[in-house]
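## Example record

The block below lists the input lines for one assembly entry, exactly as stored, with component labels intact.
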Amino acid sequence: DTAVSQTPKYLVTQMGNDKSIKCEQNLGHDTMYWYKQDSKKFLKIMFSYNNKELIINETVPNRFSPKSPDKAHLNLHINSLELGDSAVYFCASSQVGSQYFGPGTRLTVL
Amino acid sequence: KQEVTQIPAALSVPEGENLVLNCSFTDSAIYNLQWFRQDPGKGLTSLLLIQSSQREQTSGRLNASLDKSSGRSTLYIAASQPGDSATYLCAVGANNDMRFGAGTRLTVKP
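Predicted structure tokens for the full assembly:
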């Protein structure tokens, strides 16, 4: 069984569009995260949720809005997409210690 | 704010060689440190997790050490194989936050 899953795996869209990436974990973890990996492979945390509550909100444009309907899901909605949003977005979850990552969503904004 | 640095950025070695990857961090108040492997176009795979109270962890040919006071960790890979070729990321954990280094891209030549 997949521990952390993300959909879609690839997302190609035009500038100005609104899109969502979904993340689900079946590990029973309390904490979930969204990371952005840029073209230089540098991974930066964007958001962290613990039991559906926002814990960390890094300096991310407010066009990015995470939503956690329940402990097992943390979705990322992006409004008015820009070229600079092109990256790979990783979802992860953790309880205590190790983080488990999803396969990533490669977003390309044209 | 925690800063994580990995040296070298890239490393190429012949098969069979032992090697060391380095990770340094600026804030010693950490909960744990984790080493990940990332294959091209794929997600992250956790290799080793060291809790702040531990000095090292071993898994097969991998050994990771942690020196909190000096803000350093090393990942030792013994008898490297071509299949070890990947990018290795160091991540420092504190509460619900995790900071990543930029990674070391390892190539093991047959």
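Chain A touches chain B through 23 residues (CB under 8 Å). The radius of gyration of chain A is 13 Å.
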